[in-house]
Amino acid sequence: MSAPAVTVVAGEAIARYGFGAGHPFGPDRHEHFLRELGAQGLEAAVHWAAPRMASVEELTSFHTRSFVDFVKERSVRGEGFLDGGDTPAFKGVFEAAGSVVGATLVAVEALMSGEATRAFVPIAGLHHASRAGAAGFCVFSDCGVAVERLRSQYGVRRIAYVDIDAHHGDGMFYAFEDDAELVFADIHEDGSYLYPGTGTRAETGRGEAQGRKLNIPLPPGAGDAAFHAAWAEVEAFLERFPSEFILFQCGADSVAGDPITHLQFTAAAHAHAARRLCAIADGHGHGRVLGMGGGGYNRQNIARAWTGVVRSFLAREP
Ligand SMILES: [Zn+2]
Question: pTM here?
């Protein structure tokens, strides 16, 4: 069996998405990942694609028009905040955030055209943005737009969203809380100790979607053993609700040594999750896994965890 084709979407347009030098979500995150991918000799093993800017029509497939207009206006002035005080505006933030969405859509297009079986976008997975607002360093939700476009453009209904970032993916959870076809599984640090404070075990979806969302909060300090126990639960859950496409937010802030969270996974957790999601996607007959970098503020952790995900994507089936 030949190795799966893997597309990586990277470039200056998404590298620019960051809140200034010295900020945890600084513009240097992109480069740290690319350097490690090169150092591990994987540069020539993947297909490269450039980001593009998302159209207003694409952005408003998930976001409200008034929020999109608000970001555009703040982007020209380049001052103030886009939310209550976590996510500052900067000149060009509209284009940078729009390019993150566009990059994830380039990955969706590569997977849906059959050009690639797996895809990875380092600066992506902005899981705190809601339909009507920015939050927690996330301006536009590339993952939310991806879900809407998969449905409207490709007729893909049943989508699994899996999130192992240290923070709960509240933007995605609440946007699709009553959507029975969006299967949601999220391992994160307990909201009693970490932003955004949500994602308890009791939050399992609403109405028809009840039981289609799995939130697994872990206590501060939880390491790989706790991860693997939680992950087994995620796998069993994903097998109960087969999907046609898997979105994987692999935030590296759940790895030990992150400056703003308290989980203690190793980067091997991310590689394991990626490998298993590929096996699940293959088992469901489509193979499509889109990895999005998500959070992660220790540069070495970002580099190792994300490169491990790409390495897993490239692996042949045993
Ligand atoms: Zn995070």
Answer: 0.97
